[in-house]
């Protein structure tokens, strides 16, 4: 009988060790939220930026956009002087989104993309000027991965140099 109780005890110890090993794979490190009861309390869900140990938050959001800000509609006039400038931020899916802009956008006159060419022609209806400023429509006109400052300085000069002085819009 004593031999049988040793086997049961050994089985329980093995089960406990197995559970500890699985827990280490599921929740490595000391920051395991599965083991903390505070993670399930309503106060923990109230402010996601408050640290558990009440130290000052390392990340404080700079922009708190309201739902109306995020859902606002922008009127884009393809026949006028409106211009979409695509700012490519690296490692955020920008190449895929840039290709989507030139290939799949539903406008009165979408971009013309030819097989084998990387650049597409995105002209306004009845005009020979572009409505989209991106690497897939104008190439690397402002340099490789131009940031906001470079685009702000470069885009007006690149776009306006293609127009006659009297036809340039005030920006």
Could you characterize what this model shows?
This protein has 171 residues and is mostly helical. The chain has a domain at 93-166. The protein contains 5 helices and 2 strands. The protein has helices spanning 2-26, 42-46, 67-70, 94-104, 148-160, and strands at 84-85, 132-133. A two-stranded parallel ribbon has the order 1-2. β1, α4 (94-104) and β2 form a beta-alpha-beta unit. The longest helix has 25 residues, at 2-26.
Structure summary:
6-O-sulfation enzyme which catalyzes the transfer of sulfate from 3'-phosphoadenosine 5'-phosphosulfate (PAPS) to position 6 of the N-sulfoglucosamine residue (GlcNS) of heparan sulfate. By secondary structure, the chain is an all-alpha fold.
Regions with little confidence, pLDDT below 50 for 5+ residues: none
End-to-end Cα distance, whole Å, is 92 Å
> Roughly what percent helix?
25-40%
How many beta-strand runs? 2
* Beta-strand share of residues: under 5%
Tally of alpha and pi helices: 5
Biggest sheet: strands side by side, in what order?
1-2
């Amino acid at each position: 009988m004593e031999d049988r109780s040793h086997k049961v005890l050994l089985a329980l110890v093995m089960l406990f060790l197995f559970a500890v090993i699985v827990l280490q794979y599921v929740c490595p490190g000391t920051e395991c939220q599965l083991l903390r009861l505070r993670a399930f309390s309503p106060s923990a869900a109230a402010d996601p930026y408050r640290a558990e140990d009440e130290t000052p938050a390392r990340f404080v959001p700079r922009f708190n956009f309201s739902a109306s800000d995020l859902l606002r509609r922008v009127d884009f006039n393809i026949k006028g002087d409106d211009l979409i400038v695509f700012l490519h931020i690296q490692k955020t899916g920008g190449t895929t989104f840039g290709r989507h802009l030139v290939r799949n956008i539903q406008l009165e006159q979408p971009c013309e993309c030819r097989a084998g060419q990387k650049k597409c022609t995105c002209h306004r209806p009845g005009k020979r000027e572009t409505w989209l400023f991106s690497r897939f429509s104008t190439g690397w006109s402002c340099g490789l991965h131009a940031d906001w400052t470079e685009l702000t300085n470069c885009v007006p000069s690149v776009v306006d140099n293609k127009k006659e002085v009297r036809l340039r819009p005030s920006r």
